Amino acid sequence: MAESHLISQFSKLIESSYKEKAILEHQLTQLEQQKSDLEDKILCFENTLMYLEPNFDLRQIKTQFNASRLIKPRLFKQNLQLLVARALKQSERWKTLYSIANEALALDSSKDYFSPKREHELAVARVLKRLYKKGIIERREVELHKRTIKRGFFRRSEWRLKPLE
Predict the structure, then answer these.
(1) Coiled-coil regions in this chain (predicted)?
(2) Regarding the domain delimited by 80-161, which CATH topology (the fold level of the hierarchy) does it fall under?
(3) What is the pLDDT of residues 121-134, one digit of tens each?
(4) How far apart are CA 134 and CA 86, in angstroms?
(5) Domain-by-domain residue ranges, the chain?
(6) pLDDT for the residue 48
(7) What is the pLDDT of residue 37?
């Protein structure tokens, strides 16, 4: 009895694998067609460009790209430096990295709002470092309890816009 159950399970697994294989083969043929269409389009554009400007050097056009970077979704929809500036302008008080990232995320996406992840905090930290070096914002060290382990420059810092003089 157990053998018939195993046989039916394996036959279902094999069948679903064949279905998945058929779907992937279909998608591959579609991608190959898209690729050939794009190659034809590129060739047409290059010929048109050479017709319009015969002295143009086609080697100036960038042809190699990092595909993983192009596919990776952006963390923020809007300009992050602008979002950080807006988050800091909202109040004069000192803010931690987490609160700045949280406010920037809230300003960026009001509909699908969620708490910032490490990637968001790292992106905001890069912007804070850039703004700090330019002298636009100021930083102060957070007073931690004497037994607390002081980890990280950004974890023990608070930030705010420099007051206008």
Answers:
(1) 14-48
(2) Arc Repressor Mutant, subunit A (1.10.10)
(3) 889 999 999 998 99
(4) 17
(5) 2-60, 80-161
(6) 94
(7) 96
